[in-house]
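Final report, closing paragraph on structural work. Over the funding period we assembled a curated collection of sequence-structure pairs, and we close with a single example.
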Amino acid sequence: MRHLIVTRGAPGAGKSTFLDEQGLTPYVVSPDSIRLQFGGLVMAPDGNIDVSHAHEKQVWARVQEILDFRMSQGQLVVLDATHQQTRDFNMAVKSAERHRYECFCIDFTSVPADIAQQRNLMRPDWKIVPAEVIDRAYERFAKHAVPKKITVWDHAEFGTQGVLDRLEPEIVDLSQYRQVVHVGDLQGCYAPVQELFADGMKDDVFYIFIGDLLDRGIQNGEVIRFAMDHIAGKPNVQLLWGNHEYHIHRFARRQDPVSREFLYNTLPQIQAAGFTVRDANQLLNETVDVMAYTYRGYKVLASHAGIARVPERLAILPSRTFWNGTGTYDDPVDKTFSANMAGAGWLQVHGHRNSKKLPVEAMPGSFNLEAEIEFGGHLRVMTLTGVDGGAEITTSEIRNTVFRTERDKRPDKLTKGDVGETGKISELLMKRLETHPLVRVKSFATRPHLKSMNFTHKAFFSGKWDEVNIMARGLFVADDRRVVARSYPKFFNLEERAETQMRNLKRSLVFPLKMWVKENGFLGILGWDHLAEDPGLLFASKSTPEGDFASWFQEIFRADAGEDGVDRAADLVRNRNLCLIFEVNDPVRDPHMIAYEAPHVVLLDAVFREEKFKKLSYLELQQVAAAIGVRVKGAGPTLSDWNQFEGWNKSIQAQGRYFQWNGKDIEGFVAEDAAGFMFKIKLNYYSFWKAMRTHKDRIRTAREKERPAPLPRFEDEEARRFHDWLATQPTELLDNDIISLRTAYLSDLEG
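Its predicted structure, as stored:
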């Protein structure tokens, strides 16, 4: 759950040992561990072996990245560092505010300095710090206080009650109330709320709103005013955090919407109703992820999306577990909960998902309050009423009569492989692809029902393109002609072909022209193989689901997205008939020209698995990336007319290898005009080092054949210097990638 713990104490104070004893090690983010990963062990000036501190900028950037990712999931996080000065807490405080976390500090400064010095000497050699480092830490502790926004716990306070015990949400007793009323998802629908509360809300009743107040309905303004008047600040009302509360959270933090529904429908309605950022923060600061309570003999767990069982500790579960539920949307959470908790005395109440259209009491002990209210369905209510000797359970439904009349088929109602004819390649195009002389058709031993179509090397080198082979790029089709995965149609570099030459673009471009940052890795394509023995995600590179690149893509994607992210990706790809296109950056096994710190994927686009190329908007793409938990492609400048584009292009070309985007070297940009026409702009830095990679390979080949070293193929002072440096290097060094060689070359120049 949303708790951030930071440690404070000198090296040797026992922080890591304490965390391990408390069972907190799985939740630790340690700058020391990341420092070791970046810099490894080095020899200090005094001859001792030590952890390298030469990469502090990268280390703390990585710490922040991990914190933001984990906290976006609502995970319990422990930041294990010394935190000697007040300013050292800035990262923790700002991260906690950004993600609405409670922040705690476990303080080890009461450990005597001489004890810390003794323990320090007992650590492995490479962990031992000089005595003056510990002395200086205690001097700082005496001068600097922990910020008041952080709750401080002395480590010595913990005896029989551990840290996790303190974090566990309290199971409250609501037996003093006449009733406990659980209200299902509202989704911006006010008419049923009016009917439910026609006689007002009663002080002797406790109300639990199950989450998802807004979106999809057409009365969001009325619902949010009801929330501010009757939910916020009321002692007998509790709102639970649903997945749609995330959009209110972004509004409260003044962040751009990532949902078209919220941007174009919900936001105008709530702003017209006078809902402010201050209102949003007040409402969400009182919202909880889960509520556990007792009521006259019943034990009840209420969450937005439902979980599989009541765990021993709720505090260790990520908040996203309660927002989105365990498993996927179609998992039978009510059945699982009922089976797991039968005889344990627990009831569950949730909303969010009900693909099987189960009744309110979906299974014994599990109550489902989702009934498609936003599409003319029902608002569901489950009520516990006190009676002599206990309580009785009643349920009710109120039909929503105010909703959108044109209802689209909901994607989460699709079954596996349930896509229409629009998801197929026509027989005519299939025949043209299979017989085209410049298209290579591949089949696969592991997936005999699948074919991939890609343009041939001859097409690439001859420049012979037509409407058929230009679309044969990462196209995977099943035996039933259904598109399993697809990538972009082939598009070209600026000035590479007639249609991308500046003189022709001036006449053809439809403005505005949007630039996207071009990543420097390999293509990863994520589709859905409905004919596989076990239907599921298809991980492929440009032409195959087999081999190293597809395997690396799958490995890195799973590491980035995590188990929950992979499940959500599967739902999106299958249910919305999408294919997700990624750039896979693997600096270890597949380095190119641009240096990256660690393997990762970047979501480039989400395209429909159809014959005609069509993709989601950037706002929708950002939403998909956020749901999965991966990076999304970076947006470059938007150019409104030809003069802007021509001037911008001349500017970046004039800067040559010194041009950077947001302070970083990049491969270039992908340009996309308002009509969807795309072309690439490669930057000078990338092109230069690509040429230098070719040159170093030519030198290595010449040495192997005992020939004179060739000169660079273009006149450039930097190329000549790099050539001269290469000439002094041993042949085996030339086997290294160009990034490693460039780093060594620049280091020698600085030295």
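The longest helix spans residues 548-575. The two ends are 49 Å apart (CA to CA). We thank the funder for supporting this effort.
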